[in-house]
Inverse folding.
């Protein structure tokens, strides 16, 4: 995303806010092809280590986790595991925790006996 090449932190945050609302504004099927090209730069913003950006990145990724399939999101998120930035690695850990929580909730729903 070329707009993220600027040094203006406010511009970075503005672009990130688009990704907080975009996945819910369009259907998940329409957004799915964009994940591979948008998620790595979004996660890359964590290297700037600005609190406002970090919070916005986390919101954007939480929206993606709630609207998209884990199979599409895991590869770019797992790439962050090898990042040199401590902030990015901590963020990836938080994302994986969210995935595990959502997965456990889904399993609980599947295990509930169905009443006839």
């Amino acid at each position: 995303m070329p707009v993220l090449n600027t040094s203006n932190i406010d511009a970075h945050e503005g672009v990130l806010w688009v990704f907080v609302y975009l996945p819910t504004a369009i259907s998940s099927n329409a957004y799915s092809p964009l994940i591979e090209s948008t998620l790595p730069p979004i996660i890359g913003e964590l290297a700037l280590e600005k609190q406002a950006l970090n919070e916005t990145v986390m919101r954007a990724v939480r929206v993606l986790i709630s609207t998209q399939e884990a199979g599409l999101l895991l590869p770019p998120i797992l790439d962050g595991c090898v990042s040199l930035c401590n902030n990015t690695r901590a963020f990836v850990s938080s994302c994986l925790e969210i995935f595990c929580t959502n997965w456990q909730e889904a399993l609980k729903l599947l295990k509930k006996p169905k009443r006839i």
